[in-house]
Specification:
384 residues; alpha/beta; 3-stranded mixed β-sheet; 12 helices
Amino acid sequence: MQLFEQILSCYGWEGAALAGATLLMLGVQLYYYIFVYGRIPGYKNNRRPQTMDREPPVSVVVPLFSEDYSFVEERLPLILAQNYPDFEVVIVYVGHDSDFYEDLVRLKQSFPQITTTKIHLDPRFPISRKMALNVGIKSAHYECMVFTSTDAVPQTDRWLSLMAKGFMRGEIVVGYCGVERRKGFANYMMRTWRMMHSANWIARAVRRRAYRGTLHNYGFTKRIYFGANGFSHLNMNIGEDDLFMQQVMTRDNVSVILSPRATLREKTWGGMGWWMSQLRYYGSAFRFYPQAVRTYVGWELWSRVLFFATAACALAVMPLEYKIAALALVIVRYVVVALEVRRVARRLGESGIMGRYFIYDLLSPLWAAALWVMLLRRDDRVWR
């Protein structure tokens, strides 16, 4: 109380309000990075009760929407080379190239674990990823299924075994997928955005409040899928890894697999323009999230913006001793953030993040604002 009275007497109500707002936003930030994201590095999935005696056979379902020979020649072999005794790879080809499909079928001669199915592509009736996954699920021979994309690259031969082990403790399994590391500032921002965006849902998942996974690295059982009568929001081409998952996830049926050996990397096919287009497309589902989730995601971002704004105001117009105190709070926050982000990055198998993280820390609110403006316009790619 005496401290408040001293601030009030020295700096007036404006100075006291500014100090209070800065400290409040700092408190919110420290809560997120210490008590929310800080749970990720120490998480152990084996604390959940085991429901199976051993790892189950697994179907890996991969929708293929083009004649992607680079996937067949470069990334498919990495899936087939997984160190796991009992799995199949279900490839759902959506297209009209009979020669390409016959090449896929012939792969079964060398790799008997491959199962192929084809959906003929008709321009009059666009095929969504959900429709392709539905065909793949019905074609899968095993109860437990892991879903990935043609752009996701396993980093080790232990990926599938770790994801399969997750089914021993839950009917839904979620893992992490980062962005491939390349040169350039744009790639750095993409990788860091993906890591911190994923940290939001991973932090909730390890606290048994899961609300999504990532379409590149997640799985569930047939019982979960058919018990929910298939995918939800059929009027949208997106939502299989978030809106549907919100429908079927509970406190007790989700396994979270966090290990650098279980991490995938998504290939990128462009720069910032391409990336923003991707974020706009998949981000269109966010408005349909539960209010509690939208508030949870928004509070970290807005508390960061308000903390920067109040600290900048103090540094600009307040007396010297007030500026020193504000600068000290900025330094305290950044030290805590840097330490916690470094721990999260290590757990998720990310490297090369921390050197420029302060740039991402400052610029990502502007990036989020630009994305929000883009989401105000209807994206015709989303709706059927």
